[in-house]
Design brief:
It is built from 7 helices and 2 strands. It is mainly α. Strands 1-2 form a two-stranded antiparallel ribbon. The longest helix has 28 residues. The protein binds iron/sulfur cluster (SF4) (2 copies).
Length: 203
């Protein structure tokens, strides 16, 4: 499941710089035959019409399956996985999901345009919650990414808690002079916001 909303929000180091994606792909080609996004197809088209480059790239390479059954016949385990995730999300409905297959994946499952594949392919799976086919080479990496995001949010919440204890007026951060408690809470909120659909409020 591709995520066109989260570029640059994951796989960052402590300085906020994107780290290169490790070479963990088994080159099975299943993600190229079972792409979905957290957007409806009509929203994707609208995003592309408004000039959003990731949506333009996505629609240039991917063709929608005509029906869910057609996708299920090609990549059954991935369809089941994605539908399970969708049923658990309050902001999405099964009827909104479209599965896609790439125009450029070869019969052997390789990329026919590897050197010029778009950003959504270069950065996939992008973050720890992208739904990849079972047995994908990135499973361990995704687990580590999820833990990293949760740890970062917990550390920030802890910092805000300690600051509130040490400085009831919320203006004198003991280790980060010049940072107010309100600013720290804003940092926490900003960090959490993209991950709320994945349960970030409870981390
Ligand atoms: S499913 Fe995973 S291992 Fe297979 S091609 Fe896609 S990224 Fe590579
Ligand atoms: S462009 Fe290449 S990497 Fe991207 S989905 Fe198509 S075959 Fe896969």
């Amino acid at each position: 499941m591709y995520d066109l909303n989260y570029y640059g929000n994951s796989n960052e180091n402590n300085q906020g710089q994107a780290e290169p994606l490790p070479d963990l792909c088994h080159k099975c080609g299943r993600c190229c035959k079972s792409a979905t996004t957290f957007n409806t197809h009509s929203k994707l088209v609208a995003m592309a019409e408004q000039g959003q480059q990731e949506a333009i790239d996505f629609l240039e390479i991917f063709k929608p399956y005509a029906t869910l059954d057609e996708a299920r016949a090609e990549v059954p385990e991935q369809v089941e996985q994605v539908m399970k995730v969708i049923t658990e999300r309050e902001d999405m409905d099964e009827k909104d999901v479209t599965f896609y297959h790439c125009r450029y994946v070869t019969p052997e499952g390789l990329c026919g345009i590897y050197e010029r594949r778009p950003r959504c392919c270069r950065e996939a799976p992008g973050h720890g919650w992208s739904v990849m086919p079972p047995g994908c080479g990135f499973e361990g990496w995704q687990f580590a990414q999820r833990e990293k995001q949760k740890r970062m949010v917990r550390d920030l919440k802890n910092m805000a808690y300690l600051m509130a204890q040490a400085s009831p007026d919320g203006v004198n951060h003991p280790t980060r002079p010049g940072v107010t408690l309100a600013e720290l809470h804003q940092v926490v909120d900003d960090k959490i916001a993209p991950w709320k659909p994945f349960g970030a409020d409870n981390w």
